[in-house]
Amino acid sequence: MSTLPQTTPVFAAGTTTRRRLLSTDKLIRLLILASLTVGALIMALPFVWLLISSFKLEEKIFVFPPEWIPNPFRWQNYPEALIYKPFGTYLFNTIKIVLLNEVAILLSASFCGYGFARIRFPGRDFWFSIVLATLMVPYFVLMVPQFIMFSRLGWVDTILPLTFPLFFGGGAFNIFLFRQFFRSLPEELADAGRIDGCSEFGIYWRIMLPLCKPALATVAVFTFLNAWNDYIGPLLYLRSDYNFTVAIGLATFRSVMRTEWNLLMAASTAMILPVILLFFFAQRYFIEGVVLSGLKG
Questions:
Q1: What is the rounded radius of gyration, in angstroms, for the C-alpha atoms of the chain?
Q2: For residues 255 and 195, which has the higher predicted lDDT (pLDDT)?
C-alpha cells in the first residue's frame, strides 16, 4: 500500500508526456500537410491558368487581373485549334515514334540489363561502369556529331534518328534499372532452367523477362513521357510538315506576325491530356522506378 502514492505521480507524468508527444507529432504532420498543399497549389497554378485560358477569347487571355471564370465560355476553341493545324497527322507521327521507342527500349535495354546482371564475362563491371558514365554526358554535347552522322546517312527528315539508335541498348538508365531488377531475382530460377536444358537466351526470354513486369511497366511509362514530350530531337531532324510531331506542331502555332493564343492554349491542353491520364493510371510505376533503381548493386 505504501508504494501506490509513489508510482501514481510517475504514471501520470508519463501519460502527460506521451500526450504532449502525440500532440506535437500531430502539429508537425499538420504543418507538413499544409506546406505540401500550398506547394501543390503553386505548382498546379500554371496548368489551371492554361486550362482556363483555353476557353477564353484571345483578347481576354492576358488581361490583368486575370479572369478565373471565362466570360464568354468558348468550347469552340478546341475544334478550331485541332483543325487550325493538321493535328491528326502530328498525333499519328508521335504515336508511331512512341511505339517504336517502346519496342526498341524494352527489348534492347532488358536484354543488356540481363547480360550485365546474370552473365559473367571478362570486364563486365568495367563495361557497366562505362555505360553508367554515359549518364554524365549531356545530350547537347552529342547533338552536333550525331546530326553530322545522320545527315551523311541521309536520315534527315525521317523518324530513323529518333527510333533506330534505341534498338542498340535503349539508354544507360534503362539498362541500369533492368540490371538492378534482374539481380534481385533468385538465381535458383535460372539454375532450374539450365537443368531442364534451357539456353541462356531461353532463360532470359521465358523465365526472367515475364518476372520483371514491374520494371517493364516503369520503363514503358518513362519512355512514353520522353518520346511524347521530346522537342529537340524532332526539331533537329524533321523538316516537312507531314513529319512533325505534337511538340513541333504546338511550336508552329507561334507566328512572327500573329499568334492565335486561345487556340494555342486549347491545343496545348488537349495534347497534355494523355500525359495527365497516364500519370493518374500509372503513378505507382513512377515510384517503383525510384525504388527499383535502389535495389542491391
A1: 27
A2: 195
Phi then psi for residue 169, to 5 deg, are: 120, -50
One-letter amino acid identity for 258?
R
Amino acid in position 210: P
Q: Are 169 and 132 spatial neighbours (Cβ–Cβ below 8 Å)?
A: no
Which of 210, 202, 217 lies closest to 182 in space, CA to CA?
Answer: 210
* Alpha carbon separation from 152 to 149, 156, 191, 255 (Å, rounded): 5, 9, 47, 32
d(CA 258, CA 249): 16
Provide the pLDDT for residue 296: 45
CA distances from 14 to 5, 6, 21, 97, 276 (A): 15, 13, 11, 65, 50
* Span 75-91, pLDDT tens digits: 888 888 888 788 888 98
Task: Work out the pLDDT band at 291, boundaries 50, 70, 90.
Answer: low
Name all contacts of 109-112 with Cβ < 8 Å and 24+ positions apart.
Answer: 109/169, 109/170, 109/171, 109/174, 109/175, 109/177, 109/178, 109/219, 110/170, 110/178, 110/204, 110/209, 110/212, 110/215, 110/216, 110/219, 111/204, 112/169, 112/170, 112/175, 112/178
The rounded distance, in Å, linking the Cα atoms of 113 and 178 is 5
In the block, cell 517493364 appears at: 216
Closest CA to 275 of 229, 230, 233: 229
Phi, psi of 199 (to 5 degrees): -75, 170
pTM: 0.79
